Amino acid sequence: MDSLNPDYPPLTETPADAPRVWMFVGTALWGLLIFIAMFLGQVGAILVLAALRGLPIDMASIQLVGREPQALALSVIMGLPTTLAAVWLAIRIKKASFVDYLALRWPSWTQILFGAVGLILLVVAWEAMSRSLGREATPGFMTDLLKSGRDKGAALLLLFAFSVAAPMSEEVLARGFLYRGWSASFLRVPGAIILSSLVWTVVHLQYDMYFLAEVFTIGLWFGYMRYRANSLWLTIILHALNNMTAVVLTMWLGS
Fold it and tell me: How many CB atoms lie within 10 A of CB 120?
């Protein structure tokens, strides 16, 4: 049992840090502000590109520029510093350690291997289900975007955006800040894993319900690994591996 194994503490949080942790409501409100900061960073990058081209600052320009692979990649990348800044501010107000609050501890190779094997099994199961239902394994718009980026010389920029910037931004928000506060609240660890996975799923509303279900189940696995290893770096690595595999397969190996 996990509760009898010192490597896996029981599904509770140590109360000693409670005064320095945002609880349920505080975490939810700050989580919303962090998401807004991420969004502003992404939209801000598009607006700057539009302004540099002499385009009017309106929704039409945002949509026009935002459809370009290079612009979309830069948008995703610029969401990272604004996300980190908002999270840093929230943790700073609590006078807590940024590293400890987010569990920025390097995992062991055994934990990385265990997490990767579980992720592979999960993705393969969804792949098999997609094929049995006659569905595409990757959303069509993502396939078009990545292949267009490859053809237009933006492959490496897109690879960095989706394999580094996006995993870091999303994991710092979901399995970092939200999980930390909610696991210390009445939700405890199981509730924090579920709710943070739901929030992470909502961030991907550009997908249909089938792909959202896949995102949610992957989020549950990431949340469990965040608890099991007590390491946000582990979920960032797993998230990056998942995205990088999808990007490479789509851009260079077909579907």
Answer: 13
pLDDT tens-digit series, residues 159-217: 999 999 999 999 999 999 999 999 999 999 999 999 999 999 999 988 889 999 999 99
Report which of 244, 198, 245, 205 is spatially closest to residue 222, judged by C-alpha positions: 198
Q: Whole-angstrom Cα distance, residue 205 to residue 200?
A: 10
The number of domains in the chain is 1
**Type of residue numbered 122:** L
Q: What is the pTM of this model?
A: 0.89
DSSP 8-state assignment for residue 54: T
| Distance separating alpha carbons of residues 50 and 72, to the nearest angstrom | 12
Q: Do 168 and 160 touch, CB atoms closer than 8 A?
A: no
User: Which range marks the domain in which residue 243 is found?
Assistant: 2-252
In this structure, what are the phi and psi dihedrals at residue 76, rounded to the nearest 5 degrees?
-60, -40
